[in-house]
Here is the input.
Amino acid sequence: MNLSGILVVTAPGRFDECVAAVAALPAVEVFHRDPATHRFIVVQEADRVDGEMAGLLRLKAVPGVVLAEMVYHYFAEGEPQ
Amino acid sequence: MTSLTRRAFIKSSVATATAATVGFPVSQVALAQAKKAEAGWAWDKAVCRFCGTGCGIQVATAGGKIVATKGDPDAPVNRGLNCIKGYFNGKMAYGADRLTQPLMRMKDGKFDKKGDFAPVSWKVAMDEMEKQFRRAYQEKGPSGVSIIGSGQYTIQEGYVAAKLMKAGFRSNNIDPNARHCMASAVAAFMQTFGVDEPANVYDDIELADTVVLWGANMAEAHPVLWSRVTDRRLVAKATKVVNVTTYRNMSSDLSDLEIVIKPSTDLALQNWIAREILARGAMNKAFVEKHCVFATGPTDIGYGMRPTSKFAYEAEKDIQAKELVVTLDKYEAVGQRRKAGEQVEQKSRTSAGRHWLISFEEFKRGVEPYTLDFVAELCKGDVDEPIAKFKEKLEQLLQLMIDPKRNVISFWTMGFNQHQRGVWVNEQCYMIHLLLGKHATPGNAAFSLTGQPSACGTAREVGTFSHRLPADMVVDNPKHRELTEKTWKLPAKTLNPKPGSDIMGILRDIEDGGVKFLWVQVTNPSSPRPTRTTGSRPRARPTASSSWPTATPRSRARWRTWCCPPR
Ligand code: SF4
Here is the structure.
């Protein structure tokens, strides 16, 4: 199991729109939200390294997202590639 | 626990740990649950070595294996964040294609440059390397052997490599990949300040009112530092971000002002800013009088080429011919006070760093032709943008920089350093900040960002450059050699006083037959260069130390390689 804990920051005024767009993406779950600082935390699940990278790029490409960066990498279970 | 509920449990624990790492308020109950998911793990601190940002990370191990990594919330630079490269620090140790033993080109059980890679013992690899080294050294002496090193060395590794070459083999043919990225930044540092280091710290970001990106897409290339710019921009409402760029990129998303220019026209734009600083009385006279002098240098400097075209490729010869004599276009003619179409022989090719003092009045006259009309016409990079709109943006940029109440940071990286005139464009950014007195004070910086983890520490300070000795000393200074000989307990006057070949020189020397032995360490020179032709006709025995099967050992030069142990 590859899980990525990711911080997402949005442009001012676009927080709700970005949370909704990110939540609609497959294999991504939105957890903590802090609208006052335009930040939220998501956990992304991917089978392989390329999936993890493509997943992050997909978050960065969401309109209104100004920053999406990895914080936590969990790969304790299953074969790491 | 079923696998589904376990998955949900771990996901929510990862979310909590992530939130806590970047400073979200998290309840004690949630934290206790996250701790449960990490039961049996040991967390240790480490540093990400992939780039010059220097992020702190934490690594969790269980049963002798890495199971998780996270940004270190206490690390002053990254404050818990990792970029995508740092994120993979743990997992990369287990990559299936990671090299774990020496590989050597073999045919019929023997080393053969035309053979395929086969695993061999360390003894076989080392013996072959020694044999090839001796052959080259006997034939060519110190100039016939070389090391291409790296800003990814640890400081200790770089020091040992420099000492091995300079003290051991009396050869200065060691040069790092850091020359590619930082040579122009270094030359500009030396020419402007006489020391080769930036004058500011990352904490200036939190004090900046204007952040100008000069050809630097920080959102993608320096994401961790960008997160700090982002925070500053979102928290301090008056802070503005300007993206001066040749194309729309991700950094524009946060920017208040995006200025798209044609490549290389930033020099003219900088001259306009300088002109306006003087014209509008925005110069910080007291600062300038106390700390600055005005200087200029030759413009007919051409480009660095081989001293001979004997070994050059056709395309290289074509460029050489064009660059010996340059036909001025109408814009260059204005800058150089000549006529458009005039042919100018590039006489200062070997003395490009020459410079001399000029008066303030001469400086003022120098920037006078760079009017808004002239510069806007030259610089505008988006053909669809109306010229009036572009001029308006330039005026906004100027105001955001010259307003005495605003702290200003300019950031740049390879957009400047690998520019056709990299030294000049670095120097001109210092020029603007110095004219305004906005440099090296809290929140004010002309800030050259670096790309590699140890370009300063290893490459520059411990002497892995062809012209350097440790402790920022240089080989062509007799006093520096004397001190180094004493420190290294060498007989007097044995260090080689002649700078060796730089990295491009070494690669050309291989083709030209001047270098017969090359050891590539912790870098992959076949991959990043604009043309990967070098090495396709080598007369040398290249060797690479690498943890991965990179393009260098795989290149069609059939370079010989072995790996170094995982670290
Ligand atoms: S920004 Fe540089 S030091 Fe920080 S995690 Fe990324 S690669 Fe590593």
Observations:
- The two ends of chain B are 37 Å apart (CA to CA).
- Chain B has a mean pLDDT of 88.
- The pocket of iron/sulfur cluster is lined by residues B 48, 50-51, 53-55, 78, 82-83, 85-86, 224 (CB under 6 Å).
